[in-house]
Design brief:
Structural class: alpha+beta
Strand content: 25-35%
CATH architecture of the largest domain: 3-Layer(aba) Sandwich
Number of helices: 9
Shape: globular
CATH class of the largest domain: Alpha Beta
Largest sheet: 7 strands, mixed
Distance between the termini: 34 Å
Helix content: 25-40%
CATH superfamily of the largest domain: Vaccinia Virus protein VP39
């Protein structure tokens, strides 16, 4: 067994996720995924580790065990309620090498830097320079990162920092809730890059990669969403059942400026192509929606799907990752992009 698997045998998961005093927390990840990320992180005794996204406290407890009594764990979350309870549960179990703090994790936590390892359970808008600056030379960051400027298009990246520069060593299928500047109470709506939202007659939203070319009233986003919701042309996708992680990664890797993500019904995402006058998306259930049968966006979406099938529905792990420096105000760091 791995060190993480051995440690998991000694940490009571449900004591954290379903604590009798706090109750169940929705802000938690699948334990199997947590174990995978921590195995990738390669934590050893005596290390100084930071995690972003305290959640139930379970991942912090695992890290506290992995670093041992000579190591330290700093856990950050924007939600004070989660932080207070995690600190209490850790205290109840006699853990004194992990401390949870209320903070915006995208800024890191310089007070306890430098860190040998960093892990994130929430998705920043890009790999922050603050994280890279706070990691020791040769240290590792394991975090979900966007691969396009629309929601829910992420992979988990293993990043090595050497000489102050980050390099992606591997990417994996996965993603977590967006990192936000305040606690997120609506888990059905993405926390970032939503360009228009409708709440009647039912909740729906749209995110367009071409938002910089839209006007201040979001006319393009509003029009595209409206075309997909009202009197839309629908047809079934004639391929096999949609492999969503593969499809969304392939769509993002096209780097098409008209890329679009939408939520047209609860728990059902859609990816496709839109402009100010046309729209077409493929939903997770295999339904294609478009503004009309001869839509130019529909023709482009079909071309993407054909290319995806011809490529053999590639897994996210098969793409070549690259970090692209970004120095925009408020977003300094590196964007992750994938190519084949």
């Amino acid at each position: 067994m791995t060190a993480v698997a051995d440690t998991a045998e000694t940490v009571p998961e449900r004591h954290y996720t379903h604590h009798e005093g706090r109750g169940a927390t929705p802000h938690r990840s699948n334990p199997a995924v947590i174990h995978r990320e921590l195995t990738t992180l390669d934590v050893h005794e005596g290390m100084n580790v930071a995690e972003f996204g305290t959640g139930s406290g379970y991942s912090g407890a695992l890290l506290a065990s992995l670093v041992g009594p000579t190591g330290t764990v700093t856990s950050l979350d924007i939600d004070a309620y989660l932080v207070r309870w995690a600190n209490l549960i850790h205290h109840e179990r006699g853990l004194d090498n992990v401390r949870c703090h209320v903070a915006d994790g995208t800024a890191g936590f310089p007070e306890r830097a430098p860190y040998d390892r960093m892990v994130a359970w929430c998705t920043p808008p890009l790999l922050p320079k603050t994280w890279v600056d706070q990691v020791t030379d040769g240290g590792l960051i394991v975090a979900p990162l966007p691969i396009a400027a629309v929601p829910n298009m992420t992979v988990v990246a293993k990043v090595r920092v050497s000489g102050g520069q980050p390099t992606v060593e591997a990417v994996f299928t996965g993603g977590y809730i967006e990192a936000t500047g305040s606690p997120k109470d609506n888990l059905d709506l993405p926390g970032r890059w939503v360009d228009w939202e409708m709440r009647v007659p039912a909740p729906s939203w749209i995110s367009i990669a071409w938002r910089e070319r839209d006007d201040r009233l979001h006319t393009g986003a509003r029009t595209a969403l409206g075309r997909l919701l009202k009197d839309a042309h629908t047809e079934p996708y004639d391929g096999a059942e949609v492999n969503w992680p593969s499809w969304r990664t392939f769509a993002a890797a096209q780097a098409d400026p008209q890329l679009t993500m939408a939520g047209l019904s609860p728990d059902l995402w859609a990816i496709g192509h839109t402009t100010a006058t046309t729209a077409a998306v493929l939903q997770q259930d295999g339904t294609i929606l478009a503004d009309r049968p001869d839509s130019p966006s529909l023709a482009i979406l079909r071309d993407w799907l054909t290319a995806w099938e011809d490529a053999g529905r590639p897994a996210p792990e098969t793409y070549t990752p690259a970090l692209v420096r970004c120095d925009e105000a408020g977003n300094t760091g590196w964007n992750l992009r994938l190519t084949r």
